[in-house]
Specification:
This protein is α/β, with parallel strands linked by helices and 469 residues long. It has three domains: 258 residues, 3-Layer(aba) Sandwich (Rossmann fold), CATH 3.40.50; 100 residues, Four Helix Bundle (Hemerythrin (Met), subunit A) (Up-down Bundle); 47 residues. It is built from 15 helices and 15 strands. A four-stranded parallel beta sheet has the order 4-3-9-10, with helices on both faces. The chain has a four-stranded antiparallel beta sheet with strand order 5-6-7-8.
Length: 469
């Protein structure tokens, strides 16, 4: 298995720190509103990475945080006249609902920044003792960026170039810095803000220290994989490395994974441009599995463009998979429950090659686009070779293989159970009776009535099937 490591700018063979186990940290959302589809991409991508690791037999300790103290959270709390914890807890719950809808597995641990303040104070104190950090007169604590000699190794930025770009960026209060490149570990409270006591001032943590502390607590000083969106490479992840390695005196993470941006109709998503979509907006129009399928349709390191046309294409692709699965289940209901024939055994061997090719695609830096292509080839193979003459054993084997590959991608191939009311069930039965009596006018009339009620009938070679429009 090879992973593209942002740190080395190359694909590297994955070798875990501990055989059979993977320690993985993924930066989670700041919870001040409903999550948007840009948030959804890393959630889906790295959930799929986790699922594939587990498919390969690894025990994955997967940690993804909620940043629940932030300027945006505080601003919203002030606007609503409530405590900031009311805002963060509300949107943590809403985020979890959206994650469940997209079939994103709960993390092993979902730490919240406000529960980890003691650990942050300990790490900041450690960094001050080692000379990597210093308190300013107003109680702000800064990290001495230049003292960490490897600063810039993740983003591949040069310190001198960074200094040149920062000379004009000093704002009020930052003139206490020893160096313009130093960044905040702890900052004084402002009126109306939540705060915690510290040896330096009553205040709250800077953003970067949160993840260093939560990763250390729940995964240890060294981890296998740290992941997030490419917008986090600098300064967030670069600063995490500096803090963690200065404090712990060892390499922080072996592999750094970053997903590329999501654009909307070729443009950057923003509220001002009117192209800002929450996950809730999209799953009101499409099955959440369509959104998941769409996110996996491109390699995670490639920019992905979101549009109605591409979502409609994703819907069609997902439907092809689900329809193949439904056909198999339909055929199994009446198939002979006997052992596979010799011909079926040969077909099964051919189908097994799709599983191997799927693994080959995912082993190459989790190439989900190629993996989905293999699933489509398996679907075509199933549609060609599954019929009413096949044994239940063979049909079940095909269903199992399809379900296994879709499970790794987090794609649910069984539609949610629909409960038809008595009237609709009777109409379907009446239409079947009319067709049998060759009263096709009545049968068509009943079909139209059902369509008006949102029920679509499909006459297939396996029999009549229905679905919601």
């Amino acid at each position: 298995m090879k992973i593209y490591n942002t740190l080395s700018k190359s694909k590297q063979e994955f070798v875990p720190l501990e055989p059979g186990k993977v320690k993985m940290y993924v930066c989670g959302p700041t919870v001040y509103n409903l999550i948007h589809i840009g948030n959804a991409r890393p959630m889906i991508v790295f959930d799929t990475v986790r699922r594939y690791m587990e498919h390969k037999g690894y025990e994955v300790n997967y940690v993804s945080n909620f940043t629940d103290v932030d300027d945006k959270i505080i601003k919203k709390a002030i606007e609503e006249g409530v405590d900031s914890s009311v805002i963060s807890e509300r949107y943590i719950e809403e985020c979890k609902k959206d994650m469940a809808a997209m079939n994103i597995k709960p993390a092993t641990t979902h730490p919240q920044a406000t529960n980890e303040i003691c650990g942050m104070l300990d790490m900041i104190g450690n960094l001050i003792e080692k000379g990597f950090a210093y308190p300013a007169a107003d109680g702000t604590v800064y990290f001495r960026t230049r003292k960490f000699k490897e600063y810039g190794k993740l983003s591949h930025k040069n310190l001198d170039d960074l200094q040149g770009g920062n000379r004009s960026l000093l704002v009020s209060g930052e003139d206490q810095k020893e160096d313009p490149l130093d960044f905040v570990l702890w900052k004084p409270k402002k009126d109306g803000e939540p705060y915690w006591e510290s040896p330096w001032c009553n205040g709250r943590p800077g953003w970067h220290i949160e993840c260093s502390v939560m990763s250390k607590k729940y995964l240890g000083d060294e981890i296998d994989i740290h992941a997030g969106g490419e917008d986090l490479i600098f300064p967030h992840h670069e600063n995490e490395i500096a803090q963690s390695e200065a404090a712990n005196e060892r390499e922080f993470a072996k592999y750094w994974m970053h997903n590329a941006f999501l654009n909307i109709d070729g443009s950057k998503m923003s509220k001002s441009a009117g192209n800002f979509f929450t996950v809730r907006d999209i799953i009101a129009k499409y099955d959440p599995m369509v959104l998941r399928f769409f996110m996996l349709s491109a390699h995670y390191r490639s920019p992905l463009n979101f549009s109605s046309e591409l979502m409609d294409a994703a819907k069609s692709g997902y439907e092809r998979i689900v329809t193949a699965a439904e056909n198999l289940k339909f055929l199994m209901e009446t198939a002979a429950d006997t052992a596979m024939t010799g011909a079926e055994e040969e077909l099964k061997k051919t189908a097994d090659q799709f599983v191997a090719r799927f693994d080959e695609a995912m082993d190459d830096d989790f190439n989900s686009a190629d993996a989905l292509s293999v699933i489509f080839e398996l679907v075509k193979f199933i549609n060609t070779n599954a019929d009413s003459a096949k044994t239940k054993t063979f049909l079940h084997a095909m269903y199992t293989e399809l379900q296994e590959l879709c499970d790794i991608c987090g794609l649910i191939i069984e539609r949610k159970a629909d409960i038809l009311d008595d009237e609709i069930e009777q109409l379907i039965a009446d239409r079947q009776a009319a067709r049998k009596a060759k009263d096709f006018a009545k049968a068509d009339e009943i079909r139209d009535t059902l369509l008006a009620k949102g029920i679509v009938l499909e006459d297939t070679r396996e029999g009549v099937k229905w679905k919601r429009a």
